[in-house]
Design brief:
seven-stranded parallel sheet, 8 helices, binds guanosine-5'-triphosphate, 18% strand, globular, 7 strands, alpha/beta, Rossmann fold, binds magnesium ion
């Protein structure tokens, strides 16, 4: 019985995700599902993208948190169009929540929509929200064994951003072991090593991202 209920939830989600996909395509909009454990640096990364792409890419953000609108306030302060979803306990965003939030944004006025999922290394990877691709963050403070212990998100993601590399001198984190474990799960994973604090690696990530944007008013 439980299996049947779970299957029905996922079927309903798949249907709404397809509707979202159609809506995003109608605006030629590139959509990213951004996922990680709590505190890996998702919102900080978005703040940096706001600075780098100011005047070049029109970026909208849907923020998912269990409680508060703190992250939406942060990215709005960084110049991005933002809307907050408070899930009131749910550990992930689903396609229905994203559909409702997207309806409050002027999608015709955006080149890129980033959905910052609820901080959680497990549940968000199970739900398609109509995105073009999933991007995950893993900070070096979390440990190099995490791909092996929480494989689904690594399997589902197109990109892995290894964050907070400025902290490496203080940690016993083996970057090669982390990357090998991630690639054993997903050989095609695109990996960037970044620090929002020092700025290291951000240009490579931004250049790669810029090349994925389907439609833009930016001639550069
Ligand atoms: N040392 C270091 N700290 C960072 C870096 N990026 C973010 N942080 C810090 O990590 C903490 C969490 O960052 P957030 O950007 O809020 O993380 P988040 O993934 O959005 O968190 P949730 O939305 O709560 O899941 C903050 O104190 C940031 O200043 C980095 O590159 N280096
Ligand atoms: Mg955040």
């Amino acid at each position: 019985m439980r299996v049947q209920i779970v299957k029905n939830i996922l079927d309903a989600n798949t249907k709404i995700a397809a509707e979202n996909r159609k809506l995003f395509d109608s605006h030629n909009l590139t959509v990213i599902n951004l996922m990680s454990s709590p505190g890996a640096g998702k919102t900080t990364l978005l703040e940096e993208m706001g600075v780098t792409f100011a005047g070049r890419l029109r970026i909208g953000v849907i923020e998912g948190d269990i409680q508060t609108s703190l992250d939406a306030e942060r990215v709005a302060a960084a110049g991005l169009a933002a809307v907050q979803i408070e899930t009131a306990g749910a550990c992930h965003l689903d396609a229905n929540m994203v559909q409702n939030a997207a309806a409050t944004l002027d999608l015709a006025d955006l080149d890129l929509l980033v959905v910052e999922n609820v901080g959680n290394l497990v549940c968000p990877a199970e739900f398609n929200i109509g995105e073009d691709f999933k991007v995950m963050l893993l900070s070096v403070t979390e440990g190099d064994d995490k791909p092996l212990k929480y494989p689904l998100m690594f399997k589902e993601s197109k990109v892995l951003l290894i964050t907070k590399i400025d902290l490496l001198p203080h940690l016993r984190c083996d970057l090669n072991r982390m990357k090998q474990a991630a690639r054993a799960i997903n050989p095609g994973l695109v990996i960037f090593e970044v620090s929002a604090y020092s700025g290291q690696g951000l240009a490579d990530w931004h250049d790669w991202l810029r090349a994925q944007i389907k439609g833009t008013h930016d001639p550069s």
